[in-house]
Amino acid sequence: RETLPRRLDVLKENKIELPEEPKLMHTVETVDPEGVEKYWLNRFSAKKMNGDWFKLTPADIKEFRAWRKIV
After folding, report:
1. Is 20 within 8 Å of 26 (Cβ atoms)?
2. pTM score over 0.70
3. Closest CA to 68 of 38, 36, 44, 45
4. Which of 10, 46, 52, 64 has its CA 20 to 30 A from that of 23?
5. Contact 57, 16 (CB under 8 A)
6. pLDDT (tens digit, 9 = 90+) per residue, 26-56?
7. If 0-12 CB within 10 Å is exposed, 13-18 middle and 19+ buried, where does residue 67 land?
8. Are 64 and 58 in contact (CB under 8 A)?
9. 51 to each of 18, 45, 46, 68, 69, how far by Cα in Å?
10. Residue 46 CA, distance from chain mean position
11. Spatial separation of the C-alpha atoms in residues 29 and 71, rounded to whole Å
């Protein structure tokens, strides 16, 4: 199971350069990280860009950030 810090390390290891240093903006506490990830990937599938990137609107981000805990 990957964590956000591990994913950020992968970006650095693969020399993927971002315009800004990534920073943690939100977390969701859960006992089912795989299920939660699957839900959000499905929910925003129409907005998927290249790789693990999505073109989300401010409304999409507001919806995502409303979730703090999923058990």
Report:
1. no
2. no
3. 36
4. 46
5. no
6. 888 888 888 888 888 999 999 999 877 899 9
7. middle
8. no
9. 14, 12, 13, 25, 26
10. 15
11. 8
